[in-house]
Amino acid sequence: MRPEVGQTVTLAHAKRMAVGYSVLFLAALAIGAALWVSGAEGLALVVWLFGNGFTAFMGVLTVTWDVFEYLVPEDAGNTRTGRAEGRELRPGIGLSRDTRVALRVMLVLLALTAVATLAFSYALGLL
Predict the structure, then answer these.
(1) pLDDT in tens, 18-41
(2) What is the pTM for the complete model shown?
(3) Phi and psi torsions of 83, nearest 5°
(4) Which residue windows are transmembrane per the record (predicted)?
(5) Which distant-in-sequence residues (6+ apart) come within 8 Å of 127 by Cβ?
(6) In the chain, which ranges are continuous DSSP H helix?
(7) pLDDT in tens, 81-119
């Protein structure tokens, strides 16, 4: 969270979010299984693909963001210039903490997308 708001992300919050998204994921699995058993295979596949896919994506996004927000240290703000101290791209221009967190989250999501694509391609016999 932004330091000017005075909120911080704790590891316990990230764990609660992980548990919450896991419960939603399992609920979508159970709903899909109930639909499959009741004979609505097409609807069950829709619930599994979109319900579980969306829940997994949002869960990974949210939990990864919270973990990186917890792990990336706060930069000490420079009161004279109004910018954070630390690495700069050039004098006077640097990456904010939110940008550093977002780049790390994006790399995790890209890696998971690549792994999932390879796994599904292998499972479908495309590789």
Answers:
(1) 999 999 999 999 999 999 999 999
(2) 0.71
(3) -125, 165
(4) 21-39, 45-68, 101-124
(5) 118, 121
(6) 11-37, 41-46, 53-71, 97-123
(7) 455 555 556 666 777 788 888 899 999 999 998 998 899
Reported for 55-60, long-range contacts at CB under 8 A and 24+ positions apart, including other chains, are 55/21, 55/24, 55/25, 55/28, 56/21, 56/25, 57/109, 58/21, 59/17, 59/18, 59/21, 59/22, 59/24, 59/25, 60/108, 60/109, 60/112
Coil, strand or helix: which one is 90?
strand
Residue 74: strand, helix, or coil? coil
∠ CA 14-18-23, rounded to 5°: 150
